[in-house]
Write a structure and sequence with these properties.
globular; Nuclear Transport Factor 2, Chain: A; eight-stranded mixed sheet; alpha+beta
Amino acid sequence: MVTRRPGRAAVAGLVVFPALILSLAGCTGSSGQHSPAGSPAAGASSPAPGTAAGRVCTRAEIRTAISGFFGAWNHRDAAALVRLFSADGELDMATKHQDTLGGPPNSWSSAGGGPGARGQIAAFAERQWRLGEKLSFSGMEIVLGGFGNAGGGDAIVVARFADGTVQPMEEAKFGYDCASRALTHVVIVSARAAAPA
């Protein structure tokens, strides 16, 4: 586990998800490719159906993966949780005493993002579960397209702990890869440290 302070690189990483939403502004529901800026790619052709690159996400598939994350988290099912992530998936998440918006000394913790990612994510989750952490969510929004095979979504999230403290989250974003049918990057950052309700 690595504890990080938000810096330019970290903030840039969080911009990916709003950019996905913005890239849909000109989308009319077609499965055509779009450039990263959101405008249709001139002369782009679709990959052959049935190929990994041609795999298209559905909103239901992404919603199921995100709901699965919360279900596995709240049932303390490490095996189910890590199956949702790609082999090099990453979880960036504020822990109980971290105040992402308030800044230093601790803003959020990272698990995964390379070899052994799933084991690191499971170990991180188990530390949180020992604190009795449960996550509730509402307002899920699903995003299709934008960057190649990418999809994702966001939700309003609150963490509750066994000691009765509550931690509202500022952002909860879920990156999803259509080809591998897996979460690639989950970012859940806090509005403040946990405090009595």
